Amino acid sequence: MELKQHIKGVLIAIFSATVILFAISFFVGSQIVVHRDIVVNADKSAVFNYVKQPKNFSNWMEGTDGIVVKGTNNGNGIQYIGFDEKLHTFKYLVSETASGVEISYQRNNELTAIFKLQVKQKSDGSVLFYEKIWNVSNNPLTKIFSLSMDEDIEMGMKKELMNIKFLIEEDHTIK
Asked: Are 154 and 148 in contact (CB under 8 A)?
């Protein structure tokens, strides 16, 4: 009788854990949204002209070291074959009136993330606003594990913004 009770207890525990996992994942969104901004000591047009050009992407984006990037056929983005042997494509949508860029990141033709950059003039410099929206799988386990990803994404964004700031402020030909 003890073995039956033990098995019954284990099954109840597994069922309870599954129900709790699905209940928690119901309240966790399918996207991770992170915002950052930085002041760049350059004119708004110089900052905007830099970030809107796909050819500059691999200069400031973290994790592109050693990757051969080439332009898309229509010229509105870049793509490369990653270390995972998958095609990574970044399509640019530029809004001159809003001084903004929206970059759609697709991995194997599946939308993975959207990066938004917008530049606003602030006295002698510019403020560069940066937002990343990562799509998360609907898998309950993936959703639970993604809860801590926003801190990692924010650290990467901070490095990317510092790269842009450094590249623009140090390259006097951009100003």
From this structure: no
Calpha distance 40→57 (Å, rounded): 17
Residues 6+ apart with CB under 8 A from 72: 54, 78, 79, 89, 91
**Inside any domain, residue 99:** yes
Query: Is 7 a domain residue?
Result: no
Question: Encoding tokens for residue 160?
Answer: 């990317």
Structure tokens of 53? 């050009």
pLDDT tens, residue by residue, 40-81: 999 999 999 999 998 888 888 887 777 777 888 887 888 888
What is the Cα–Cα distance from 117 to 128, expressed in whole angstroms? Answer: 7
Question: From CA 43, how far away is CA 31, in angstroms rounded?
Answer: 33
| Contact predicate 33/146, CB 8 Å | no
Q: What is the DSSP code (8-state) at residue 75?
A: S
Output the domain CATH number for residue 144.
3.30.530.20
- pTM (global) more than 0.70: yes
> Nearest-CA neighbor of 88 among 73, 66, 110?
110
Residue 11 lies in a domain: no
The answer as to whether 135 is a domain residue is: yes
Write out the residue range of the structural domain in which residue 42 sits: 30-170
